[in-house]
Design the sequence.
């Protein structure tokens, strides 16, 4: 049980294994590679996504089971100095027979389910930055990551050391004039998380589907890593191009938080080289125009890398 809790804190609290905190300045990010060799790997995240440079395929849909169900309470929210993290009931995560939300489909390993573990956010001090991934040259003001563990691995410690151990869903947020009422369950507790290392447990009627974009039929997917030390290359990324709306007033509530050394903002990693990796994009138009193609698409023959 200790390793389950430790590994979960490692991932969602963004604290390195040696207990030292890390920074997001250009100099500090360069030091990640010194302290964690994996951060200098060839499968690092985030990356710049490009529609024209991605490979369109009629991939299977991403199935989200339990995303419309209320998360098991109490829900834990924390300001760990690097982000705001949300973790469902620890008892439900540690229970192998739990019915936590899970995903499958897309280019995830056939027959494997990935169970929701936690989510967190990355945002900028200014409106033209904040997201970790770029899409067609655009950096959004905020990005949310929903972390899922491959259920074939007993705990996060094991999953982090396997290339198919995790799947992370990336969701962009785009500014709009009107507030997004679906964000209220999280935003209303942010004042209680103003200071570094503050946390609160709440009983809230929150579903993961309420945080999802309106269109989940199209998504980008590629092989990558955690975007924080120790940068384990264990992640199958799934990025939705359709953004979730957020008002400036709502976004500013995140910017009021403290990192312990100043304002908590610009907590995003610089983009990494794509290298030999392929980026696939699920294109619904191809699937509609040729339904037989999607039925006979041999996923086992698809490679994540260029020869």
Sequence:
């Amino acid at each position: 049980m200790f390793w389950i809790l430790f590994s979960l804190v490692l991932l969602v609290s963004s604290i390195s294994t040696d207990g030292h905190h890390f920074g997001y300045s250009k100099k500090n990010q360069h030091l990640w590679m010194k302290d964690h060799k994996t951060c200098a790997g060839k499968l690092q995240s985030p990356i710049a996504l490009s529609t024209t440079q991605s490979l369109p395929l009629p991939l299977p849909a991403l199935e989200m089971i339990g995303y419309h169900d209320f998360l098991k309470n109490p829900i834990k929210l924390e300001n760990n100095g690097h982000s705001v993290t949300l973790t469902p009931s620890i008892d439900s995560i540690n229970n192998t027979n739990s019915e936590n939300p899970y995903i499958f489909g897309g280019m995830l390993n056939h027959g494997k389910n990935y169970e929701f573990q936690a989510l967190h956010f990355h945002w900028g001090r200014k409106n033209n930055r904040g997201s970790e991934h770029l899409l067609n040259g655009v950096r959004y003001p905020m990005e949310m990551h929903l972390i899922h563990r491959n259920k074939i691995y007993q705990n996060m410690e094991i999953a982090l050391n396997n290339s198919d151990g995790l799947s992370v869903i990336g969701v962009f947020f785009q500014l709009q004039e009107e507030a997004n009422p679906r964000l209220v369950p999280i935003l209303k507790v942010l004042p209680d998380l103003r200071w570094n290392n503050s946390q609160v447990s709440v009983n809230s009627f929150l579903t993961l589907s309420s945080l999802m974009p309106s269109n989940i039929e199209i998504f980008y997917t590629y092989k990558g890593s955690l975007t924080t030390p120790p940068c384990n290359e264990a992640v199958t990324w799934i990025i939705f191009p359709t953004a979730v709306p957020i008002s400036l007033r709502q976004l500013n509530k995140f910017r009021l938080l403290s990192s312990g050394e100043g304002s908590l903002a610009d907590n995003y990693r610089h983009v990494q080289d794509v290298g030999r990796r392929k980026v696939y994009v699920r294109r619904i138009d191809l699937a509609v125009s040729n339904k037989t193609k999607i039925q006979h698409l041999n996923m086992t023959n698809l490679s994540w890398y260029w020869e």
Notes: The first strand starts at residue 48 and ends at 49.
